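ESCALATION

Customer reports they have been waiting on this structure for their group meeting. Please prioritize. Original submission:
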Amino acid sequence: MPEGDTLARTAAGLRPVLVGREVVAARAAGPGRVPQVGRLVGARIDAVDSVGKHLLVRFDNGLELRTHLRMHGSWHRYRPGEPWRRPAARARLVLEVPGAVAVCFDAPVVELFERRSEPIHPSLSALGPDLLAPSFELSEALLRLRRPERAGRPIAEALVDQRALAGIGNVYKCEVLFIERVSPFAAVEALDDATLERLLSTARRLLRENAERSSGPERVTTGARRRAVGPLWVYGRTGRPCRRCGSRIEAARQGRELPRMTWWCPTCQAEP
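Update from on-call: job pushed to the front of the queue and completed.
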């Protein structure tokens, strides 16, 4: 599941083959509005960056590409002529530069817009502080979590609200709450600032550690390198024993706007 760490690793993998090179061919396909990516041919790629769960490709002709991978999208890079690992029919976007081909598969969002409009872009301008950004502002993230519209919401819902802070998805939501022994059903207003700061600090540490990993499982939150221990504490482990206390891990669908599964230990994360 692509979260902030996945996008950071994706951007890091694409930069060496894209940045500084001129686009020699570009095409897009798929359902919905298809961007006129032919306008990119002849442009040089200035930057490839991740912001929360968004990947941004910026060009020297003033244009910018935004992709959002949601659940199933992914970016691949290939040498010219190398077989693709997914069917060509699933390619939403293809960028060819000298010596490399970058392909975005299955992404529901592929958008081309003017770079100068990024500060007022309806999706990007609404994002909260990016946990992976060097300039991450803890105070701003706390202010956003404390806004009245989130006061009564369960903390598990607030953590994945990208308007509060960007980068946390369902995996990190569950894992961070378990590590810090916080019930996913506790209201934001019931938690003190010290608890919120611990949650954000742990989330940022785990995102950064996994963004910098170059091999092994997609992400590890237990700190374990031995296969017998497992990479995650609670996510996806319904009915299995808690790695900390032995209680059965529980799961339930949670959220009003976008219901998602939550996994937690009823003993380690007892409700207040």
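Sent to customer with the following note: Residues 138-264 form a domain with the Helicase, Ruva Protein; domain 3 fold (CATH 1.10.8.50).
Escalation resolved.
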